[in-house]
């Protein structure tokens, strides 16, 4: 059977390897074309100095007329439930000058450019990136629903071991941990896209790295069909050590987003390669779902690696990746449930 019956998978494997090369060669420089623009710089400096932009007052640059000290950050004068945004004169001037400059560029027929390493995206109320925040929240909901249906399937529908009342499926605990890390990652993804601050960014990047690292462990254990604890520990220990070191580096030494992108891309490609090869050589009834998820994962990595610029002020390449994550999450939990049913049926058949 082998790969000769799965010819279309060869381009997928080659594309995965190409994505690794793209990620490793990516320029992680922090300077951006937008914030180097003299017109943007002049607008920003004028806004900070006067607290106005074209005769419009910038709220966070106006000192309140209460008894609070004038040198206190503006967001500290707001209600407690709004202080988490940490919007101040500096961030507000950056945002409004960025939007002003992008409008001028659009009138000249020029495309968007990055400012301070990020694409110019429009806000909506208290949400800094409303579309990405909404899509992240939807994916979180899909993840929770998938895990809940998986839990109910194994606990109440499939047979349990009579002596211990444990499930027959050997990977139950691994999928439960995967669900917790996935939901934690998507929760902080939604929070980060709602409000981009130093602490939300660290939590977002750290939780995503933890989830991807554990997903690689799950991929190795399931595709290799490892069931004994000693083998699982030997596989998991070095990966957990590496991911933990990486997270500590990001949080306590340097928040190197370029390095983090390379690490996460390599981890993602590694697990996609494992699942793709496994789907190509196995007779699992849900192998097509694995292949579809792998194809979707490759497309997401491609969009992230090539950093597609925004359209209509709200939709960029990252938002498209977040939209793709919704059906991919549903398919992935569908595969997990069918895998549990198949393995349980196989074990029960052997016991007869």
Automatic annotation (TrEMBL):
Primary location: Golgi
Presence of the UniProt keyword Transmembrane helix in the record: yes
Topology relative to the membrane: Multi-pass membrane protein
GO biological process assignments: GPI anchor biosynthetic process
Keywords recorded for this protein, A-Z: Golgi apparatus, GPI-anchor biosynthesis, Membrane, Signal, Transmembrane, Transmembrane helix
Superkingdom of origin: Eukaryota
Signal peptide: 1-25
Coiled-coil annotated spans: none
One Pfam family hit: Per1
Transmembrane segments: 131-156, 168-188, 203-221, 233-253, 259-281, 288-305, 317-335
Molecular function per GO: hydrolase activity, acting on ester bonds
Subcellular location: Golgi apparatus membrane
Any one of the GO CC terms: endoplasmic reticulum membrane
Similarity comment: Belongs to the PGAP3 family.
Role this protein plays: Involved in the lipid remodeling steps of GPI-anchor maturation.
Name of the protein this chain belongs to: Post-GPI attachment to proteins factor 3
Originating organism: Aegilops tauschii subsp. strangulata (Goatgrass)
């Amino acid at each position: 059977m082998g790969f000769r019956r799965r010819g279309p998978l060869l381009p997928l494997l080659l594309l995965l390897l190409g994505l690794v090369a793209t990620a490793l060669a990516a320029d992680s420089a922090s300077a951006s074309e937008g914030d180097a623009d003299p017109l943007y710089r002049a607008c920003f400096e004028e806004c900070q100095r006067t607290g106005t932009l074209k005769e419009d007052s910038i709220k966070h640059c106006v000192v309140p007329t209460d008894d609070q000290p004038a040198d206190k950050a503006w967001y500290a004068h707001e209600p407690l439930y709004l202080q988490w945004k940490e919007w101040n004169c500096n961030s507000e001037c950056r945002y409004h000058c960025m939007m002003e400059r992008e409008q001028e560029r659009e009138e000249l027929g020029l495309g968007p450019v990055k400012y301070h390493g990020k694409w110019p995206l429009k806000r909506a109320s208290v949400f800094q990136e409303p579309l990405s925040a909404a899509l992240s929240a939807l994916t979180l909901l899909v993840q929770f629903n998938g895990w809940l249906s998986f839990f109910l399937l194994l606990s109440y529908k499939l047979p349990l071991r009579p002596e211990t009342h444990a499930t027959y499926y050997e990977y139950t605990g691994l999928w439960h941990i995967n669900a917790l890390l996935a939901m934690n990652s998507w929760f902080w993804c939604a929070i980060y896209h709602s409000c981009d601050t130093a602490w939300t960014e660290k939590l977002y990047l750290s939780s995503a790295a933890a989830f991807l690292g554990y997903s690689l462990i799950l991929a190795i254990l399931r595709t290799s069909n490892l069931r004994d604890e000693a083998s699982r520990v030997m596989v998991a220990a070095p990966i957990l050590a590496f991911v933990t070191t990486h997270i500590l580096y990001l949080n306590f030494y340097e928040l190197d987003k370029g390095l983090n992108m390379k690490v996460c891309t390599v981890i993602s490609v590694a697990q996609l390669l494992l699942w793709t090869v496994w789907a190509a050589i196995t007779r699992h009834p849900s192998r097509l779902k694995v292949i579809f998820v792998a194809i979707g994962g490759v497309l997401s990595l491609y969009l992230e690696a090539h950093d597609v610029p925004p359209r209509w002020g709200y939709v960029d390449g990252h938002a498209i990746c977040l939209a793709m994550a919704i059906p991919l999450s549903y398919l992935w939990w569908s595969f997990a449930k069918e895998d549990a049913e198949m393995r349980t049926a196989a074990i029960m058949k052997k016991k007869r």
